[in-house]
Design brief:
The strands form 4 sheets. A 5-stranded mixed sheet has the order 1-7-6-4-5, sandwiched between helices. A 4-stranded mixed sheet has the order 8-13-12-11, with helices on both faces. It is globular, with a radius of gyration of 19 Å. It has 2 domains: 182 residues, Thiolase/Chalcone synthase (Peroxisomal Thiolase, Chain A, domain 1, 3-Layer(aba) Sandwich), CATH 3.40.47; 148 residues, Peroxisomal Thiolase, Chain A, domain 1 (3-Layer(aba) Sandwich), CATH 3.40.47. The chain starts with 5 loop residues before the first strand and ends with a strand. The chain is built from 11 helices and 13 strands. The chain is of the alpha/beta class. 33% of the residues lie in helices and 23% in strands. The structure holds oxa(dethia)-CoA (UT7). Oxa(dethia)-CoA (UT7) binds next to helix 2, helix 6 and helix 8.
């Protein structure tokens, strides 16, 4: 699809729960070690929500993104949240955030694409903005994964953390003079995107999530924890992600060397290293929050992006690739000019 207008990220924000759990803390409650976890994943510690709800974290991240973009909540006309751990089945996380922020003019809904959730939400916002239906979107990725972990399964629970990230995405003028208003001038925004799903392999990373209350069902118990075949997920990621990134680069007419940073879903440091190797890209171009956040599913890409933004790593005209991958199975990549 040819872009009709520029849709740019004009602000970012994030929130991490106050409580930090280190690998050493985990080794006190299960048979694991800092050495095992760090050497296989790159994770040292993760934030786990104690009193913070998913909506609380998402609203905090959203508030910061609005502040960074220099806009008021009433100016937002679309809120899309990528999440698999909303506080309620209904209302959606996006509706909860709408209420908390006072974004009274927004349409709000959630997208379930697990670790690719933020990227699916981002692409959905982009398409709405391109169509001219809406002008200003708040895109969220927020998770409380700690509540769906089996804390007796050391092979999964040590990998994940909680958190929330957000980005304001707006229809912008490419021409700085025409843009005038604060925050609207900048690069060409989203240059290309691509996404995909493979439901046939869905069960390699699954979570039933809720009990069946149907009185007609004899044995309504279903496991509500995340269950994962780690090695299958690993194989999927290192095969699918570089191919998806290559396709989106081709769509944008760019090469690996043109990209300043690859902002990838933070699942595992070995996955980042393998993707870098397959793309023949310098690993230094793959920033990471894995050491202090773990895998935050849909929150990992926007939390990383916000950290980069706050550190001043992104300058006007920089080209970055953003990519998410995970349960579904799902994957999504975008090329963005900052
Ligand atoms: O968003 C996507 C999320 N998913 C992922 O990122 C998963 C991708 N997969 C992986 O990163 C890796 O498969 C893991 C890090 C999950 C596991 O690494 P692995 O090298 O594939 O380990 P493994 O499952 O083959 O287990 C090796 C050993 C086993 O012991 P035995 O059978 O060899 O005696 C496990 O029981 O490590 C043991 N083990 C642990 N030991 C200490 C599993 N978890 C732990 C643990 N601490 N936390």
């Amino acid at each position: 699809m040819e872009n009709k207008v520029a849709t740019r990220i004009t602000g970012t924000g994030s929130y991490l729960p106050e409580h930090i759990m280190t690998n050493d803390d985990l080794s006190k409650i299960m048979d694991t070690s800092d050495e095992w976890i760090f050497s296989r994943t790159g994770i040292k510690e993760r934030h786990l929500a104690k009193d913070e709800s998913t909506a609380f974290m998402a609203a905090k991240a959203g508030e910061k993104a609005l502040h960074d973009a220099g806009i008021e909540a009433v100016e937002v006309d679309l809120i899309i949240a990528g999440t698999i751990t909303s506080d309620y089945v209904t209302p959606s996380l996006a509706c909860e955030v709408q209420e908390k922020l006072g974004a009274v003019n927004a349409v709000a809904f959630d997208v379930n694409a697990a670790c690719a959730g933020f990227m699916f939400a981002f692409h959905t916002a982009h398409v709405y903005l391109q169509s001219g239906i809406y002008n200003t979107a708040l895109v969220l990725g927020a998770e409380s994964l700690s509540k769906i972990m089996d804390w007796k399964d050391r092979s999964t629970c040590v990998l994940f953390g909680d958190g929330a990230g957000a980005a304001v995405v707006r229809v912008c003028e490419e021409d700085e003079e025409k843009a005038g208003k604060k925050g609207l001038a900048g690069g060409r925004g989203i240059l290309a995107f691509e996404q995909g799903s493979d439901g046939g392999k869905g069960m390699v990373l699954n979570c039933c999530g809720r009990k069946n209350h149907n009185p007609l069902v004899k044995n309504p118990w279903m496991p509500s924890y995340v269950s994962m075949d780690g090695q299958q997920v690993y194989k999927f990621a290192v095969g699918t992600v570089p191919a998806s990134i290559q396709r989106v680069l081709d769509k944008a007419g760019l090469r690996v060397d043109d990209i300043k940073y690859f902002v990838l879903h933070q699942a595992n440091i070995r996955i980042l290293q393998s993707v870098a190797k397959r793309l023949k890209a310098d690993i230094g171009k793959f920033p990471s929050v894995l050491d202090h956040c773990g895998n935050m599913s849909a929150a990992s890409v926007p939390v990383l992006l916000d950290e980069m933004n706050r550190k001043g790593m992104l300058e006007k005209g920089d080209k970055i690739v953003m990519a998410g991958f995970g349960g579904g199975l799902t994957w999504a990549s975008a090329v963005v000019e900052w």
